[in-house]
Amino acid sequence: MTDASLKTTPLNAAHRALGARMVGFGGYDMPVQYEGVLAEHRWTREHAGLFDVSHMGQAKITGADALRQFERFVPGDYQALKAGKQKYSLLLNEAGGIIDDLMAGKPDHDGLFVVVNAGNKDEDFAFWAAHLSGDAKLTVLDDRALIAIQGPEAAEVMVAHEPVLAEFGFMDTARLMLFGVDCYVSRSGYTGEDGYEISVPAKDAERIWNLLLQDARVKPIGLGARDSLRLEAGLPLHGHDIDPTTSPVEGALTFALSKSRKEAANFNGAERVLKELAEGPARVRIGLHVKEGAPAREGAEIADAEGQVIGKVTSGGPSPSLGKNIAMGYVPPSHAALGTALQVIVRGKPAAAEVVAMPFVAQRYHRKPKS
């Protein structure tokens, strides 16, 4: 894809003014780094990193029948979701494969606010437009930008602008006036750190971005560090760690399967998903510590202790926080137990690896005490 054919976010000029190195991602011209991936990764883990995620797809699904219609294609219980909450879910095809993973919540009393991945958003929106029925209506919010602020100082930064945000816990969401404009805000993110995602009108995005960067605790962070942060957090990237052939069970995403939905078995792909829950899948996503040699990147083969190839790496690289190489990939369940000795084939040479628990680095989401 040429630079001329790439789309731009409302913050493109701001990135270039900051000297960002730009690359094509998900069809968009996006910043991969500003001062360097390692420095940006560490800043986010220690302070507050600011991310442009406006390439993601934003939409509302409204109507009296919106929640029931939405549930036909996801395994989460959204009809029981309380106002002011959101949850992670999976858009499934009829075979139980993951068309996309997404966030959907109830920031107001007007249906669902949904955020989907950039590379899949056109397909996702076309899918819903074709399959929603009754009075359920999809409205694509292509006049909005999306900004994420992540890290241990993110809450302090945001509370200085709006004190009510201190009351949010992980996965709380609301529609409110923030920075003088109409925003959708959730306490969530894709780094394993505490933080917020803020949907803002596109015309106000650059002003808000620059305002947040005036705080000494905040620095702009590119997609390079976003990827290493999410890898350490054990979070899958669609199109790499999960795809339309992957089931929620294979992808180790069974937490997204609500109990009531499993019992009702009334979502796309339920037959496959329930069978895999009962009998086990053919493969499963695992975490790996690559104990020697170069990092094992996407596509590297995974072999058992005897050298027999049994799977592939789907994401991998150095962990700045741990000072060692880590990876995710798929192997048969017989080789997925923690502590299992495996090998990864990097540049034609086998290197020792071990199955380890995910997340690799502890997630630090802000969870409110249960009342």
Explain what this protein looks like in three dimensions:
Helices cover about 20% and strands about 30% of the residues. It contains nine helices and 19 strands. A hairpin with an 8-residue loop joins β11 and β12. α2 packs across α7. The chain is globular and about 60 Å long. About 50% of the residues are buried.
Supply the key terms.
single chain, 371 residues, alpha+beta, six-stranded mixed sheet, six-stranded antiparallel beta barrel, 9 helices, 19 strands, 20% helix, 32% strand
Topology, element by element:
Blueprint: H1 12-17, E1 21-25, E2 28-33, H2 37-46, E3 48-52, E4 57-62, H3 66-71, E5 86-92, E6 98-105, E7 112-116, H4 121-131, E8 137-140, E9 144-150, H5 154-159, E10 173-178, E11 181-186, E12 195-201, H6 205-213, E13 218-220, H7 223-232, H8 259-264, H9 270-279, E14 284-290, E15 301-303, E16 309-319, E17 324-331, E18 341-346, E19 349-356
Parallel strand pairs: 3-13
Antiparallel strand pairs: 1-2, 3-9, 4-7, 4-8, 5-6, 6-7, 9-12, 10-11, 11-12, 14-17, 14-19, 15-16, 15-18, 16-17, 18-19
Helix pairs in contact: 2-7
Task: Characterize this entry briefly.
This protein has 9 helices and 19 strands. It has 371 residues and is an alpha+beta fold. Helix 2 crosses helix 7.
Distance between the termini: 52 Å
Q: Return the structural class.
A: alpha+beta
Mean pLDDT: 97
Largest sheet: 6 strands, mixed
Find the count of extended strands (DSSP E, 2+ residues).
19
Radius of gyration: 20 Å
- Give the strand order, joined by hyphens, for the main sheet: 10-11-12-9-3-13
Helical content stands at: 10-25%
Low-confidence stretches: none
Quaternary organisation of the protein chains: single chain
Strand content: 25-35%
Order of helices and strands: HEEHEEHEEEHEEHEEEHEHHHEEEEEE
What is the count of helical runs? 9
Shape: globular
